[in-house]
Fold this sequence. Notes:
- The model is unreliable at 45-54 (pLDDT under 50).
- The strands form 10 sheets. A 4-stranded antiparallel beta sheet has the order 8-9-16-15.
- The chain is α+β, with helices and mostly antiparallel strands and 539 residues long.
- It folds into 3 domains: 97-245, no CATH class; 269-327, no CATH class; 337-537, no CATH class.
- The chain has helices spanning 3-89, 109-123, 150-158, 166-178, 191-202, 234-246, 269-276, 305-313, 357-370, 383-387, 416-428; strands at residues 97-99, 102-103, 127-132, 135-140, 147-148, 181-183, 187-188, 213-217, 220-224, 229-232, 255-256, 259-262, 284-287, 290-293, 298-301, 319-327, 343-351, 374-375, 380-382, 398-403, 406-411, 432-435, 462-464, 471-478, 481-488, 496-506, 510-521, 524-537.
- Helix 2 (109-123) packs across helix 3.
Amino acid sequence: MSIKEKENNIEKEIKKEIDIDKKIEKKIQKEVDKNIEKNEELTESSTTDFTPILEPKTKNITSIFTLLLGIILIILLLSFLIFTGYNLINQNIVSGVHIKGLDVSNMSKSDARYQLENYIKQNLPEEIKVKHGDFETTISLSQIGVEFDTKSAVNTAYNVGRQGNIFQNNLYVLNTMFGKTNIEPTLNLDTEQLTKNLEDISAQLPDKVVESSYYIEGNNLIITSGKEGNVVDIEPTIEAIKSAICNFTTISNPIEIVVKNEKPNQIDIEKIHNEIYKEPKDAYYTQNPFTVYPSENGLDFKVSIEEAKAILSVQTAEEYKIPLKTLYPNISTNMIGTEAFPDLLSTYSTKYAVSNKNRTTNLILAANKINGTVLMPGETFSYNKVVGERTISAGYKEAPIYVSGEVVDGLGGGICQITSTLYNAVVYANLEVTQRSNHQFVPSYVTASRDATVVYGAIDFQFKNNRNYPIKLVCSVSGGIANFQIFGLKQEDDYQVEISSYETGRTATAIYSEAYKILKRDGKVVSKQLLSKDTYKRH
């Protein structure tokens, strides 16, 4: 078979296949058309058969739903109107409102404030505790003026549900009813006073900052160095205290003090000099009215400021010593003449033996120390302080004194005669005797209970100027007479003074005596005051 024939045969086979496919396609199309016609008939049949049945049921359901919806809307509208009306006429705080945890629902403003203030009072202690490590102290709440603004808090509670439009207010009320609204009243306190309290506490901390300080000891200024430490950090501590006061559940617990570390200030020697420096003041007086203005000693560094700075810069030490000097006035109080003290208030004299030169010397030395002394009102005189220690360098001599019941020579012997003479003058001037002791034996220059002994460093004689005007002591030792005069300014209420002294008994070894101060006015006794009851040894 030739190639041409083969191609013709293949072509014939292909045509047969195409014809077969077309026949199959036509059959399938016929079946599809038949199915479509059946479906259309079924659809028409269904519509014709069921529509009359479903249409009435759908209309009934729609009507019922519409009716129910209307009823619900009416109920909601009525509820809204009733709820709104109630809220409009309600004069109490709405339900669910709390102030500082206290339920004030449905209370009037006055009741709510009363209940709130009682609640706060019951929960607030009188004082709170603050601590730093082992250190603990308290702060009084009344002292720092702690109070809560209950009026504003109650007003805020009352305004819940009353500050918006109708819909907003109703929403606020509903939220509060089913939830909870808590109002915190404003805390007020005296911040300035609390700051002062904390500053005081800062100075009490065991690990506090120690600032440098100074004091005068004798003729020296002693400067002590400071030390690094803690101070109270005021602002955060105040906030911690406020927070604790507002929290009733933890207010009984100690509040931790907030501290910060600080270094002490550097020593300011110029500032210290300005503080201790004092100009001397001369004494003076006026006559109309009579007034005495006493002298005052001044004070200054004995070295220059530069030298003082050099002392501080030599080395770091716990304390530094700066020498001082006294600046004396040109006119001291003792230099004011007797014309400033116009009236003689009292005088008293005792006799001494001029032949005893050493004893006489001692009397003169002691008298000269006292002579001219001026005491301002309220000032106290100390015999040992004014006369000073009885030493050889001061010029005192050996003279008879009492020691252990015996008469022996001793340095400064005899000066107790000056003390006793002054004592009597003081009593006659009606001045206040604050310290006085009698001798072991009754002395020869005064009677029993009219004497006063002194021993330097052990026994002193002291009295106080209890008058309203200064007094001046004038003392002289001459010609066998030791004399004291006390000058001042007489007052209308002054008394005439008498001294009554006498022995009350004797034994083989002792003498007992008493002394009284008798005050008279216009010759009549006003009072009789016991001065002393004394016991002496018998020679």
